[in-house]
Amino acid sequence: MCRSGLLETVAANRCLLLTLVVALALRLVLAVVIQHRVDQPPARLCLIAGDAEGYWELAQHIVAMEDFAIYQPPRYVLRVPGFPLVLALSQAVFGNNVFAARCLLAVIGAAACGLTYWLGRELVDETTGLIAAGYTAVSPTMALFSVLMLSETLFAFTLLLSLIAIACLVRRKDADSRLFWRSLVAGGSVGLATLVRPTWLYVGVLIAVAAIFLCRGALRFKFLSIAGVLVGLGLSMAPWALRNGLVTGHLVFTTLWAGPSLYDGLNPQATGDSDMRFVETDRLFDHLSEFEVDREYSRRAWNFVAEFPQRALWLAWKKQQRYWSLVPNADQFRDIWLQVVVFLAVLPLMVFAIYGGWLSRRDPATLVMTTGALLLFAALHLLFVGSLRYRLPAEYPLAVLAAVGVRSLFLRFWRTA
After folding, report:
1. 128 in a structural domain
2. DSSP H or E stretch at residue 130
3. Structural domain containing residue 338
């Protein structure tokens, strides 16, 4: 390597290190602030109530080597195990110290910024990766959600891992032996992300297949790659699916919570926001199995669509409004100054991503890997309840596309200056 190239590499490494230090410092500060806030009466585990308590309880059961189940009657396949396992790691080392768990999640959030750099470097170049990582490091929503007891940031981390594996597969067309292992890793990483968020089973596979078919390569390469991805996915998901078969009598690859979640978004009282109180009111779990409850709520949701199609379309519109909102839509984040800060952070991301998408129009594989998650999640949330929260993990790869736009504008102004 020539001297100038070496200096550029050293400078890039220093920029990346500084970016990760800033990302971690910001998240640790927020961990302190959030912990202080939730400790105030009435004390609670998370700013956003609901899911966090369930994740924490499941982690406690893992540490105590008890059944992976919560509530009465027990629900054994309510959640995938990825996020509870991370919380269990914190509990095993630090006990029931919630602040320690927040710090661990802060580290994962900072690491996700590093993975954004890696994805940008793999898809475009090192400068693009640094710009994308810089945005994710200081994004207020990404930093805040990193220290909440919710799975969004861990999912973003695993989502990025799977996209990087897919990018390495389609960008580096090696001999058959290496192709097989790369495709297995890509499929396994999709499975890993699915064990954090079940929707990635469908979204991740669609992105992988689309990226493989859109890249330049022989048909043999494409079919072998897809076969390897599916094998890797199956191997990574098999232990969880088999465990679910043992406890439910049915082969369940993700969870038995899709039915209630679907009914949450499609029922006569639905508003587009989540309100799961019907589960306690209906009390179906008192006399039906988890599998039967899942199927029953799915049936009710689709019956609602068939009976009230106009209402279902209106709900789809409301869910998209919430999903694409540029300001927080949770009641806990209605502070005007917080909304202004988030708006000023998210708007440039979207604008530059649109411009970067136009510049990348001749590279469809890159477009799929940077926008696929965002758009496919939006499609899913035509049915399920919508929120900015569900868009957040997809903003990490989107930052790579936005970085393409930022870099292009900077170079244009630099040349004309």
Report:
1. yes
2. helix 126-138
3. 28-416
